[in-house]
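Worked example 2:
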Amino acid sequence: MTWASPMLALIAAAIAVPALVILYFLKLRRQTREVSSTLLWKKTIQDLQANAPFQKLRKNLLLFLQLIILGLILIGLAQPRSSTTTQGGRKLVLLIDRSASMASVDGEDTLGESSRLDRAKRDAVKLVESMRAPGLFEGEGESDEAMVIAFDTNAEILVPMSSDQTALINAINSIDQTDSPSSIDEAYRLAQAQRPNRYVDDTGADGVTNAVELEGIKGGEAFIFHLFSDGQIPDAEVVRADNQEDIPTFEYHGTGKQDAVNIGLIALRAERDYDNPRKLSVFVGVQSTDSIARRVDAELIIDGSPVSVRSVELPPAEIDPLTGTAEPSTGGVVFELEEPNGVMATVQLDTSSGDNPEADLFATDNRGTLIIPPAKQAAVALVTTGNFFIREAFLGFPLSRFQVMSPSEYESSRGNGAMGAFDLVVFDGYLPKPNDAGEVLDPGRYLILGAPLVGPLGVEDKGVGPGSTIIDWRRTHPILRDLTLDGLVLAETRSIEIPEDSGVVSLAETATGTAIFETSNADVRAICVPFDIGKTNWPFEVSFIVFLASTVDYLATQSTTDIDQNTRQLVPGAVLSDRLPINSASVRVRLPDGSTSDAVIPSADGSVIFGPIRKTGVYQLRWAGDPGATDVVDDGRVSRFYAANLLDADESNIRTLPEIALANRTVGADASGAIKRTKDWWPWLLMGALAILMLEWWIYNRKMYL
């Protein structure tokens, strides 16, 4: 039992108790009045008669009850509490993980009825209720304050530093589950940004010392972080806990079971065969955290109709006997079908099938969807002065149309609009003349060989440079990931510099600068190889043919629906961003649950942004206006579909971590022990005093009854 304001109660008791007792010693002075009879008054006044200035204190029930009432009020004024936290005035930061894995239903409650997020919210509410509130006559500095931050990939402050427990609890209860991956970086930076700047003493030339604020350098009292999560946070090492000997400044409240088992999708990709785009392959990757081998069924659904079911064999996950953490096992399957049309392909896992079926604790990663464009062979125009190697390479590709033209023929076709029939235009050692608006490239897709693109969309050309080799390239880019450039030798290079904030992306580098780059805006996308192909050994390397084929695929057909490159594939936590026809109006987004968003206002060039995306599923962008090539028109409105999938190995591993590694320490789950709730007894004492006061009033009135 502790007391919030004991001195105040003692001072009040020293005054009030003697005053009450003295009132019963004093003799009452009464004025004499003549009445016709005192028979009815005799019994009433006999206890009030006194023959001395002070009465002898006798047994009196009213005095006893009044002392009890006064005692309860005085004890309540001292604000007794049955338990307490650490010292008052702490600043707490409650980081509540709302990411996808927190939807797992493996809490201590009945299976399937309570998620990890529900448990985390209840624990956070208990922590808020245990905060020390200020006494009746104490300042705010004596109380605990807390800030509530909910996070997944993104983070938001729901309540800034406040001692208002009602507001804090309401904010905690308002946190909704999302399907986004987890990242603590933004949440931690948001919290640290709320700390005051540090002050240092600066003595001026006049000898006067003043406190000087250091902008951007945080100081002041350390925040105490309370993380409510299952620990599956890939970037936990960005957190650097403050070092204080008297109290822990970072506490991890683990939610969920360390042996939780889950099987889920971690990869989903579709590709069309390059030679025959009608052939479609759907690649499925599956992960298991079970310590035994598992077999599950994967079902392929095309436009709502089941097409095929394949079994996926998953070996046992590797379990660390010391820490209990698991290294998940993986498996996969490939669906192959003939499908020339654009389709919506969905893969559904049946985790209850096969051997050892168990209840699925995490359902979000059991389903994934791909928006696959129709099969297409590109129409390519080669504008050249007669490069034999490039022409022969394109003649070997499966193109719907291939036309070789001279620069003069191109300028003529450009003027009459005939170039709109080509998906890709290849410039070999040539760049078009700027149009009336000063633009070198018209809207479209381009591959530029042997000429540096300069200007608003291009780079700064410093002229011819010495011979060199490719020293590095972006191996994850679609046009470079299937080849190697180690053997490429350049007799001469171009000295290229990329302007800042230009949007140009370097794809390959020599010792003298950029060798291959990509540039784009709302209307144009181009890959540029500024050096002279004829002065290299590249035409004799296999990588040259692969490069041209990948570029055609990337710029002209987009047959590879890779989730990292296709804008129709989304990740929860990201934003839906696309460009609609200029005349689009009444733009809205239909969400996976069937609801419709508020109006989305396109920018002047038709660009729209919506998000961040919170849930997995299919999103439908609808508008009134012109449709694109693959859009669907229904009831006078145009629809474009997008798929949001989790596909995150960390989130699918739902085993709660027993500890998390920060930048400067390792923190175990529930290191602080159970959260104790501080119980304030003064409201109950005041209620008891009120009840006895009513009893005293009833007895007094009975005694005075005539």
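The two ends are 47 Å apart (CA to CA). The domain at 263-375 is CATH 2.60.40.10 (Immunoglobulin-like).
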